[in-house]
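User: Sequence in, structure out. Go.
Assistant: Echoing your sequence, followed by the structure tokens.
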Amino acid sequence: MGNPFEAVWNTLKVTVDNANEPKHPLHVIEVGDCWKYLTMVEEFIRYEEIGLHTTNDDEVHELLIDIKKLCEEQSQKLRKFMINEGIPLPDVTPVKPESQEKEIPMGVKLTDDEIVNGMSLKLILSMQHAAKGQADAVRNDLGMMWLEFFSQWVTAGNTLKTLSRKTY
């Protein structure tokens, strides 16, 4: 079994040793992971927008804002990477219009529990896809980006877990 410190050392060695070499193009699996993840994170942002327009709970509202900000940061970073690599961007769901929580009928409006459960599911999917992207990555720069995304979701997940316990 490998040593984590050895893995970090090997990554640093490859990064430093290959600093002057041209980057290899991404392979098709890496491109597919980028497309899928960007589409998923953009859809997650739309879900958060819906949640922001329907919740009246301050803690849920604050968490939605935090996770939306995280998704937007990841989306921008991945978009920039894809553009630099010459990968066309996927079509994504457009921004949801603003609405007032009280204007949405009760049978249509998501409850706070449903919003938190939806965020939990989307967070788990985001973590899984970031881990898959990291496992599929041949290039270290892309692998490190996936690792960064994964660690951000782990941090957000701890906050979400605490909120989930309060809602039940």
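User: And one key feature?
Assistant: The mean pLDDT is 86.
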